[in-house]
Design a protein that fits this description.
single chain, about 500 residues, alpha+beta, four-stranded antiparallel sheet, 5 helices, 24 strands, about 25% helix, globular
């Protein structure tokens, strides 16, 4: 395990620390004199003993060239520069203020807490605090990450060689699962049971999900062979149930969509499968239902759906990551997503929701960049873009209890990042605002869906008539378009009126 530190206790060489800071009389009015404080003597000067430190173990402190090179590296860190400027501004303010009078200790502590809270809530940042590398000589991509549900200090990493057909002879495949099976760590590295070849998947298994139940012995598996299988580890010879992801609902394996991601929420009656073809398939969790287990399909992406996750606060809304965009969907609308990011210049390979904030989600890209999105702040651009490494990032997972994010790269390197506290602090009205946003966008999506269906019906009916019907169809489409935009304008005006009323109520409450 290699450790990288992006912080240093040393000031840059071009920062000048003055011996004395002149008093600013204008700040004296902000001071509160504590009448109960007893002053026995005048101002007393104290010296400060400082010992230079904070160097990594790999740096020789006595080597001027080594320390200078490391100092220059730290100075280029954007987070370090931003932190120094913020601390310098606040420190200078309090020094000027304290030299102009006597401040009550309780009031000073309160002011300090307010300043600290404001700084932490306004600054959005990330820094690397640890690096885990693939111990094998032949490097493999870190394709899947998982935090231990109880122990926050344990992180499981699955490594895969993505071009498995061309894998070198000495390549390790210990973390690559071809057939469904389960392991008991007490029995060593060999599987306790394994499914028979004729009942197993024919392609690599990209997703396995354990089902939460009283016995906890069942698991779903999804593969690019177009099948989803339900297993019981007490009898691994063959799956209990199977589902072929055939959109025509005929169960034809040749027409099936290859599964690359899957989302299962225990409280929902349906689970979701992301496919190679960019389609999300909604399936009944009971694969032996009287009706067809495929409930509906969601179309919107042009490439494999690499990531698929329901919002932990609003499960009916889910996130998908594919091609060059991330999209947010409502389970009630299948024709289009309700929100989407901009089209990036490079592919997105993974993403997930924040476990503590319903408006925040994370995505990683092929250029090695981590993007953090806050829907309440901006929708088309990320709140923070952080360059994690120079190779592609294939996976990302968020720790539930701390501000830690781990990203797995193409070369098998997993970087542990510490995010700013503001990204993990739930706002006072955040749940209500996000709920309102999702409901508003869902209503708009339903309008678009109905207009789309009406247009298709008109196009189909006009195609059966003579050429004279084309003008009527164009007129109907124009009217439908006008009605749609009028509905949007009315809804926007209603929303603006609500915001004005809320603003007026806040102002009256403040008075």
């Amino acid at each position: 395990m290699d450790t990288e530190c992006s912080e240093s206790c040393n000031l840059p060489e071009n920062v000048v620390v003055p011996e004395d800071i002149p008093t600013d009389p204008s700040l004296a009015t902000d001071l509160i004199v504590n009448a109960e404080t007893q002053i026995d003597s005048g101002p007393v000067s104290h010296g400060i003993n400082h010992e230079e430190g904070g160097w990594p173990k790999t740096i020789d402190v006595d080597d001027m060239e080594s320390t200078s090179r490391y100092r220059k590296k730290v100075q280029k860190d954007v987070c370090y520069q931003h932190t120094v400027m913020e601390i310098a501004t606040v420190t200078e303010h309090h020094v000027k203020q304290n030299k102009g009078g006597i401040c009550s200790l309780s009031k000073f502590d309160e002011a300090k807490r307010v300043v600290t809270k404001d700084m932490s809530s306004s600054v959005v940042s990330a820094r690397t605090i640890n690096v885990f590398r693939d111990p094998n000589k032949e490097k493999r991509a870190a394709t899947s990450l998982s935090w231990h549900p109880l122990d926050d200090h344990k992180l499981a990493v699955a490594y895969s060689y993505l071009e498995f057909q061309r894998a070198p002879k000495n390549m390790s495949f210990d973390s690559y699962i071809w057939n469904t099976g389960y392991w008991d760590t007490r029995s060593g590295s060999k599987p306790v049971q394994m499914s028979a070849a004729k009942h197993s998947h024919r392609d690599p298994v990209y997703k396995v999900i354990w089902l939460q139940s009283k016995i906890c012995t069942e698991a779903f598996s999804a593969s690019t062979d177009g099948q989803v299988k339900l297993w019981d580890i007490r009898k691994m010879s063959e799956p209990n149930k199977e589902l072929v992801l055939d959109p025509s609902r005929k169960g034809d394996c040749n027409s099936a969509l290859g599964a690359v991601s899957m989302e299962f929420e225990n409280t929902m009656a349906k689970f979701l499968v992301g496919t190679e073809q960019g389609v999300v398939v909604s399936c009944s969790r009971k694969l032996d239902t009287p009706n067809d287990p495929i409930v509906c399909t969601y179309h919107g992406h042009r490439g494999p759906v690499y990531a698929l996750q329901r919002n932990p606060f609003f499960p009916k809304n889910f996130l998908t990551v594919a091609d060059c965009t991330a999209r947010i969907w409502s389970e009630d609308i299948s024709e289009t997503s309700i929100m989407s990011t901009k089209n990036h210049k490079t592919y997105l390979l993974d993403g997930c929701w924040s476990p503590v904030r319903p408006s925040v989600f994370f995505t990683v890209k092929m250029d090695g960049t981590l993007d953090v999105w806050d829907l309440l702040f901006k929708q088309k651009d990320p709140t923070l873009s952080f360059k994690v490494c120079d190779e592609a990032l294939y996976s990302i997972r968020i720790q539930n209890n701390n501000h830690l994010v781990c990203c797995g790269s193409q070369l098998g390197t997993v970087k542990l990042l510490r995010m700013s506290p503001s990204l993990f602090r739930l706002g006072k009205d955040e749940k209500a605002l996000v709920s309102e946003m999702f409901e508003r966008e869902t209503r708009r999506g339903k309008v678009l869906e109905s207009q789309y269906r009406e247009r298709n019906q008109m196009k189909h009916s006009c195609s059966k008539e003579d050429d004279g019907g084309e003008g009527d169809m164009d007129e109907l489409l124009a009217c439908a378009e006008m009605e749609f935009f009028q509905a949007l304008e009315f809804e926007k005006k209603t929303e603006d009126d609500k915001q004005d009323k809320r603003k007026t109520m806040r102002e009256e409450t403040a008075k």
